[in-house]
Amino acid sequence: MTVLICYATEHGSTREIAGRLAERLREAHHPVDVRSLSGQEEDRPDLTRYEACVVGSAVHDGAWLTPAAAFVRDRHTDLAARPVWMFSVGMTAALPRLLRGLADRGEQRPLVELQQLVRPRDHHRFSGTIRPQHLSRTGRILFRLLGCRYGSYVNGAEIALWADSIAAALPRTPGPTGPSRVRPTRPPAPDPLGTVPPAPGGATVESGRSSQPPLPEG
Ligand SMILES: Cc1cc2nc3c(=O)[nH]c(=O)nc-3n(C[C@H](O)[C@H](O)[C@H](O)COP(=O)(O)O)c2cc1C
Q: Mean pLDDT of all residues in the chain?
């Protein structure tokens, strides 16, 4: 079963997460193609080549980036005909704890609309990377006033766990030495950015919140 992972990114963390998901699924012997969604019709992947799809986007101002949202809206019939997983990449982990719930709720309405179109098996919210140069001057002032902290919050263990939940739901693809030699996936590798235990309830929770301390910066 070939899996398509497609994503829209502005500053690269969503691409990084898509790449790590692909790596993990390949370790579980699932063929995977990774494609960036540029918004150009001719760049859109041909869904008929794939039996399952994982689609993700960076979150800006509470919504998915246009190329990813448009892809889901335009291809919802094809998407809904196969197993779909969705992921969002925001900066929840950069916020003070008290504000994290608000940030997640802010994203919900536009996302629920997309979810209703394709009925994903799961949606997971990851935290990405936020740096001063990503924000406007006003955005930087607001960021500081809210008590947010710049850094990379990409959590390898969280990504691996979520990928494993997807791999477990896909039919097994025989490995090079046949089905009897297909190994269960190894436990998540330690996160090179700092080990963080997954949120209670494992990788299928909606929050994707991380208690990971930010890399000191700025
Ligand atoms: C202009 C702008 C708006 C953003 N708005 C949100 C938001 O509403 N909610 C959120 O959780 N993160 C928000 N972020 C943070 C990004 O989603 C986060 O940095 C993410 O890692 C970006 O993914 P990317 O590196 O793939 O572009 C915003 C970032 C920028 C630059």
A: 83
